[in-house]
Design goal:
This protein is α/β, with parallel strands linked by helices. It has one domain: NAD(P)-binding Rossmann-like Domain (Rossmann fold). It is built from 7 helices and 7 strands. The longest helix has 29 residues. The structure holds nicotinamide-adenine-dinucleotide. The site of nicotinamide-adenine-dinucleotide (NAD) has 28 residues, from helix 1, strand 2 and helix 4.
């Protein structure tokens, strides 16, 4: 390579700060048919990015593409299973035929379920979750990063979880993938930095992507220092920031968007003063 001492001062050398730098950028979001991925895609569209909406579900891809189009944005659909290098190859070719470049990849697609206790689990379960969550990040990033390197740079955003550093019960495979994704993020950042490709991860806390009832939302919110469960929209600001030129000197890092959940100790013996016992604002 001939750019080992690259001196680009921004992701694309534009010198434009803020989200304006994302206007016209080609942004591929995997698993964007719903939940966090959809919200991130819609937010990128709101700042003028051209979206590629990936998901395994064709119906949800159509729905998001139409919704972005109706709001005045630009989006193409790309139905593909991220664990299939053949399907992802077809998707990347289609993006290049349409746009001729890829500026940002958000590796969001991930499987949580089925949740199984370690003794209930089998190898097929383990392999499927590893294939989609961890290998899927590699399969999508590998061709995309080659394209980014040839065009002079780009941004990859991976999707971690609190499970990367604090375990969930019955999530052995999922938590292993998320720990792997954080390690992958650091390793990719080292290998791809000289090509002006930044690689970071987002770590969502408890984000309501399944339409929880009021009681569940309240219960889960009580475990969060900010006092509420997260919404998909809460994930979008950090995604835009990491993709923008304002983050041009940030790579290999993980941003937690969890309302402070991982900042705390939670156990019956340690957490002896719940928020309900805190002084009320009127008493201050
Ligand atoms: N919601 C949370 O509280 C939370 C917390 C931590 C991490 N995360 C992570 O955030 C990401 C998104 O989570 P979410 O809650 O929005 O999930 P979700 O289930 O609502 O959405 C995930 C999307 O990915 C798609 N998908 C699944 N397998 C796929 C595959 N093989 N190829 C392409 N698309 C596929 C699904 O069809 C779905 O539309 C995941 O990586 C998840 O692990 C979520």
């Amino acid at each position: 390579m001939n750019n080992s001492t690259n001196d680009n001062s921004s992701t694309n050398g534009s010198g434009v700060s803020g989200y304006e730098s994302l206007d016209g950028k080609v942004v591929l979001v995997t698993g964007a048919g719903g939940g966090i991925g959809r919200s991130i895609a819609e937010r990128f569209s709101s700042v003028g990015a051209k979206l590629v909406i990936n998901d395994v579900s064709a119906d949800s891809v159509d729905d998001v593409v139409q919704s972005i189009g109706a709001a005045g944005g630009t989006a193409m659909g790309a139905v593909a299973d991220v664990s299939s290098s053949e399907a992802v190859g077809v998707m990347i070719d289609a993006v290049m035929a349409e746009h001729g470049r890829i500026d940002v990849v958000v590796n969001n697609a991930g499987l949580v379920s089925p949740m199984l206790h370690f003794f209930e689990a089998d190898e097929a379960w383990w392999r499927r979750i590893i294939d989609v969550n961890l290998t899927g990040h590699f399969i999508v990033s590998h061709p995309a990063a080659r394209i980014m390197a040839k065009q002079g740079g780009g941004v990859i955003i991976n999707m971690s979880s609190g499970g990367a550093t604090r375990a969930h019960r019955a999530f052995t495979a999922y938590d292993a993938t998320k720990g792997g994704i954080e390690a992958l993020t650091r390793a990719m950042a080292l290998d791809l930095g000289p090509y002006n490709i930044r690689v970071n991860a987002l770590m969502p806390g408890s984000i309501d992507t399944s339409g929880l009832g009021l009681d569940d939302r309240k219960l889960r919110g009580e475990n969060v220092p900010l006092g509420r469960i997260g919404e998909p929209i809460d994930m979008t600001g950090a995604a835009l920031f990491l993709a923008s030129d304002d983050a041009s000197y940030i790579t290999g890092d993980v941003i937690r968007i969890d309302g402070g959940m991982l900042a705390q100790q939670r156990s019956a013996t340690v957490d002896i003063k719940p928020p309900s016992d805190f002084p009320s604002v009127e008493d201050l």
